[in-house]
Amino acid sequence: QMADPFLYNTGERSQYGCLGHEVQIEHIKAYVCRPSFFTDKAVIVIHDIFGWLFPDIRYIVDLIAGHGYITICPDFFKGTDPWKTTDHWADFADWMKAHDPVKVDKEADVVLKYLKEQCGAKKIGIVGFSWGGMAVHHLMLKNPQLTAGVSLYGIIRDSEERYNLLNPTFFIFGEKDHTISYDQITLLEEKLKQYCKVEYKIKVYPGQVHGFAQLQPEDMKPEDKPYIEEARKDMIDWIKMFI
């Protein structure tokens, strides 16, 4: 039995009663939560490998909507199966080939069009976790329509052009994340300093493993809670600064 490399226990989860609703946008299903008042500000949330139905990600969508944003989490896997806790890590590389986080441009464009035309959004930000963090990093290099981005523990590693961000981007990492080495974070910092022409920020949260920032309050360990809450506040503050 190979150990789960994420140290991210998705097994026991409290039930979550979602505040939003599901919509169909062209070929994509999406979960949307809106604040109780009109706003022309929106945030796209990109899920991790566990997909758009996972309670943790829906909790994040509702949380961001509570700060006054039309918030949407599209199914970037387009109806195909997300990674499941019963799947074997030996198959993960193959699964990733079929679910490439840098091949999200078409879906992002469909969602941006929906937010602008159907929801009246004028400023749109993006937040992504793990797989979604890699997708955010990619989109912040490619899509000028995204005003600001937050990439949580996702890094594009094998491309030399990953430092010319188009708009302000915040990278959040956990210190104990053994899917992302400290060297990779240091390299990202050095290269951004060299090439990046927009505002950016990198922050590493002490003692935190991969996936730490998504947990619902009742699923948090007391020792991690302050760091999780700080990461969330930092994420929201970054969005509020630009959107």
TrEMBL record:
Its main location: cytoplasm. GO terms for cellular component: cytosol. It holds the Pfam family DLH. InterPro entries: AB_hydrolase_fold, CMBL, Dienelactn_hydro. Residues 28-241 form the Dienelactone hydrolase domain. It is found in: Cytoplasm, Cytosol. Transmembrane segments: none annotated. One of its GO terms (molecular function) is hydrolase activity. Belongs to the dienelactone hydrolase family. This is Carboxymethylenebutenolidase homolog. It comes from Rynchops niger (Black skimmer).
